[in-house]
Amino acid sequence: MHKITLIFGDGIGPEITEAVKAVIAAAGVDILWDVQEVGQKALKAYGNPLPDAAIESIKANKIALKGPVTTQIGNGFKSINVTLRQTFDLYANIRPVKSLPGVKTPFTGIDMVIFRENTEDLYAGIENVINEDRVEAIKLITRKASHRIAEKAFEYARQNNRKKVTAIHKANIMKKADGLFLEEVRKTADKYSDIAYDELIVDNACMKLVQQPQKFDVIVTENLYGDIISDLCAGLVGGLGVVPGMNVGEDCMIFEAVHGSAPDIAGKNIANPLALLMSAVEMLKAIGETEAADSIQSAIYKLLEEGKCLTPDLGGSATTSEVAQELCRLVAN
Ligand code: NAD
Question: Which of 94, 247, 260, 269 has CB 3.0 to 4.6 Å from 90, enough for a Cys bridge?
Answer without folding.
Answer: 247
